């Protein structure tokens, strides 16, 4: 099993952003998880294009952008130009999800779909083969540092079943409240990528914490 760890930059120290980016570069982490919030889709505003530009200037690993914004189609090209490798939109924010997925891919990015905790995985039955990554929200999106919602394990298993039944190669990412308490169970249920924000950057030694998560899940 090869789990991927994606530290969420939302929990980094923005006054020492370059330091924290270099920390992830040098760590065993696989991806950078970048949370973009617009204050409309979620009740919080994180950061936008200039900050992402500063991040991609230094980051040497895959850039996984999680858009928590309404009408994400407006910015697909912008995020491609800024260096996003994976662009994830919310199911709940897309009226024409299939069209949005095609637009993301036509810009050369992998296409992700995020589901809020209340959104049933069965809604992806008709698009699963077009989705590179499903991001299951294990907290209500908008803030780092929240508690993991236990119902997520069930959703991972259900989603895995849909992926296998359709012969899709979609990866499952878990986002929110990931710690050493749930990482192993999530991987056993079928998760491929774990996003971790406050658990990593709130630790005394983030580098060791990332390595610890990988060890725990292999
Ligand atoms: C929540 C964000 C998450 C968040 C995870 O809206 O999408 O990526 O940064 O942070 P933790 O790991 O602290 O829950
Ligand atoms: Zn996220």
UniProtKB/TrEMBL annotation:
CDD domains: RPE. It catalyses: D-ribulose 5-phosphate = D-xylulose 5-phosphate. The keyword Isomerase applies. GO terms for cellular component: cytoplasm. Pfam families: Ribul_P_3_epim. GO terms for molecular function: D-ribulose-phosphate 3-epimerase activity; metal ion binding. Catalyzes the reversible epimerization of D-ribulose 5-phosphate to D-xylulose 5-phosphate. This is Ribulose-phosphate 3-epimerase. The gene is rpe.
């Amino acid at each position: 099993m090869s789990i991927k760890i994606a530290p969420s930059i939302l929990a980094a120290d923005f006054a020492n952003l370059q330091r924290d980016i270099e920390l992830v570069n040098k760590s065993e982490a696989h991806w950078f998880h970048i949370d973009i919030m617009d204050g409309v889709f979620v009740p919080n505003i994180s950061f936008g294009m200039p900050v992402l530009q500063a991040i991609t200037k230094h980051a040497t690993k895959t850039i996984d952008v999680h858009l928590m914004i309404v009408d994400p189609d407006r910015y697909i090209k912008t995020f491609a130009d800024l260096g996003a490798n994976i662009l994830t939109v919310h199911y709940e924010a897309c009226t024409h999800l299939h069209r949005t997925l095609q637009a993301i891919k036509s810009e050369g990015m992998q296409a992700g779909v995020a589901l809020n905790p209340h959104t049933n995985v069965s809604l992806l039955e008709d698009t699963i083969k077009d989705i590179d990554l499903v991001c299951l929200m294990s907290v209500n999106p908008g803030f780092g540092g929240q508690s993991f919602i236990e119902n997520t394990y069930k959703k991972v298993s259900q989603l895995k079943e849909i992926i296998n039944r359709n012969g899709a190669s979609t990866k499952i990412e878990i986002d929110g409240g990931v710690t050493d308490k749930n990482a192993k169970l999530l991987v056993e249920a079928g998760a491929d990528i774990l996003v971790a924000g406050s658990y990593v950057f709130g630790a005394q030694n983030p580098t060791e914490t990332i390595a610890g998560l990988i060890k725990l899940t292999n």
